[in-house]
Amino acid sequence: MKIKGIKDVFFDLDHTLWDFDKNSALTFNKIFKMHDVAVDLNEFLSHYEPINLDYWKLYREEKIDKASLRYNRLNDTFNKISFRADSTLIDKLSIDYIAYLTSFNHLFDDTLEVLNYLKPKYNLHIITNGFQEVQESKLKNSNIHHFFKSVTDSEQVGVKKPNPKIFNHALKKVNANPKTSIMIGDNLEADIFGALGIGMEAIYFNYLKDPTQQQVNQINNLNELKLFL
Description:
InterPro entries: HAD-like_sf (IPR036412), HAD-SF_hydro_IA (IPR006439), HAD-SF_hydro_IA_YjjG/PynA (IPR011951), HAD_sf (IPR023214), PGP-like_dom2 (IPR023198), Pyrimidine_5'-ntase_YjjG (IPR052550)
Largest sheet: 6 strands, parallel
Strand order of the largest sheet: 3-2-1-4-5-6
Protein name: Noncanonical pyrimidine nucleotidase, YjjG family
CATH superfamily of the largest domain: HAD superfamily/HAD-like
Number of helices: 9
Radius of gyration: 18 Å
CATH topology of the largest domain: Rossmann fold
GO molecular function, one term: 5'-nucleotidase activity
Strand content: 5-15%
CATH class of the largest domain: Alpha Beta
Pfam families: Hydrolase
Shape: elongated
Distance between the termini: 9 Å
Order of helices and strands: EHHHHHEHEHHEHEE
């Protein structure tokens, strides 16, 4: 089951190492209290999380810009729960969400253990579609920045995963060969198929245990990486 010949291990960040949903929920709880937004947090999140994923897909596909993503995911969610929020409030929440998001830094279970296990054996890197200023803060504030030799984000490159340009850029930056590199991430389209498409190995972090018919290497928790690497 071990994958032979790997030298460089590339990770996605959100939903792979950094527990986005947990940190996001804590952020919304904080900013709703700050702005006296009287909504049921669990109800809000039950709609926001799938809406957010849909908007990120549009963002990956270059169909919307950053500002549209940040505004519309909130506006659509408030409409779903029939809460009246004017554009001024949504703009304030959008700004404060980004400002406070990295003040919460929960990682997935076993993240530190696995990174400590991998670091002596491989060169570790990040490839993320997240926004540059936010991703840097996540890495530093969660005290995992030092594990990684490089961080490549979509804003640096001008394209997003699964575009082959971002993978090739990340490889070239550290003089890595796709045949001796592997990508680990939670998104089949962006992380797994994107990496496989340029000749890298890949492991799907299926932490939600979604059923998939795709014949790809997959794990349900990070500790299982030790079976492959």
